Amino acid sequence: xxxxxxxxxxxxxxxxxxxxxxxHYSSDCMAIEYWAEPTAVAQLLPPGLSADNDSDGRxxxxxxxxxxxxxxxxxxxPARYQYREAFVxxxxxxxxxxxxxxxxxxxxxxxxxxxxxxxxxxxxLGSIFQTRTFAASSAAAAPLAKGSRFGASIAAHGERMATAxxxxxxxxxxxxxxxxxxxxxxxYFPQLTVGRQDKPxxxxxxxxxxxxxxxxxxxxxxxxxxxxxxxxEDMHILAPLRVGRGYRFGMSYSVTDLPILKxxxx
Length: 266
Prior knowledge:
- Strands 1, 2, 3, 4, 5, 6, 7, 8, 9, 10, 11, 12, 13 and 14 form a 14-stranded mixed sheet that branches.
- The protein is about 10% helix and about 45% strand.
- It has helices at about 40-45, 80, 110-120, and strands spanning about 25-35, 50, 60-70, 80-95, 95-105, 125, 125-130, 150-155, 160-170, 185-190, 200-205, 210-225, 240-255, 260-265.
- It is globular, with a radius of gyration of 19 Å.
- The mean pLDDT is about 95.
- Strand 5 (about 95-105), helix 3 and strand 6 form a beta-alpha-beta unit.
- The chain has about 270 residues and is mainly β.
- The chain has a single domain (about 25-255), classed as Acetoacetate decarboxylase-like (Beta Barrel), CATH 2.40.400.
C-alpha cells in the first residue's frame, strides 16, 4: 500500500512533500496597508466573492519568516520546513460579509507550496527576505522599539516584484482590530485532457481556518511599498495608489481543517 499525504506516494510514505495535518506555524511578520485601483481588485475576485465598495481598493502586502512543524518533530528539520513567504490580501465580500482574498503569493519552499495548493493558495516560487530582530543589542539587531527600521522584498525569476520599508512608531494595543477579516482562497485544479481543458477538475472557494491564532508584540509605523511592472507577471495591477500604516508582529496558529464555502462545479 502506498502512503503519504501528498505526492510522491511510496510504501514507507517518507518522500511526501508535506506531512498530514495538523500543521503548526509560527512567524515574524511585516504587513503593509495600502490602497490599489478598486477596479483591478474587483477583477481578481473569483465566483462567490464581490467587491467591497466600502474598502475602496484596500489591501495588505505581507512578508513572513516562518517556522513549521507537524506531528513528527519537523521543527528539528529546518532545512525542509523553515521558509519565507510574501503575499497580497485584498478586501472583498462573501454573502455581504467582509473577507480577505489572496490573489498572489510567493514562497521559497516546496513543502509550503504543497500545503498551499492543498488549501487553495496560488503559491509560486520566489525569493523573500525581511529584516530580522535579534536579542543581542546592536545596530543590526532591529529591536522592537520606537525608531527601528525594517525592510522586506520579494523577487521571482530574477526580477524584484515588491519592496517594502517600515519605521516603528508605537505599539498596537489590539492587533485583532487591524487584522480582523477571515481569509478566503480558491482551490482550482485544471484538467489536461483534450476537450476538458477549460473545465477545471476542482473549483472551490474555501476558508483559511486558523486554530489558536495568536498575534503578539505588534508595532506600527510609517511605511513604504512599491510593486513595479515585471514582464511575465501582472501583480503590478495592484500597485499602491497610496500607502497607509505598516505593522511588525509575531503570529502563530494551527491548521486542522479546510471548510469549503462554495463549490463552483456543483
